[in-house]
Amino acid sequence: MILLTDTQRDRLLANGRDRDQDHIPVVKFFNPFGAGVWLATELDLDGDIMFGLADIGYPELGSWSLNELRSIRLPFGMGIERDLLFTGDFPISVWAGAARETGSIRDAERLLYRSGRLSGGTRPDTEPPRS
């Protein structure tokens, strides 16, 4: 799977040049087999170091390597995936607050979705779509 589209990369780079803002997440990555969710808001000019909210057991704001995400090998030849339906809708501070309150990004997404604060375009990656 392509982890970043050209449009997403351009938005992340633009956000990275304007670091003093509370950016809306551009892309969500997740481990389809277990723990690991990343909401990226920025990308450094080097094209590797991302900033956003990461949750590999506890949600925290910080930086990580896109190349390291790409190199993770999971069962059945799979890797980290990009949530194709994700729409950030809120600044990263809202996501971070909800994730700290609920204990994880996945639970924060459920909370924000069920409360009507997220648009219908996003679906938690661990629940089937609703009819």
TrEMBL record:
InterPro entries: DUF2958. It holds the Pfam family DUF2958. It comes from the Bacteria. This is DUF2958 domain-containing protein. It comes from Paracoccus denitrificans (strain Pd 1222).
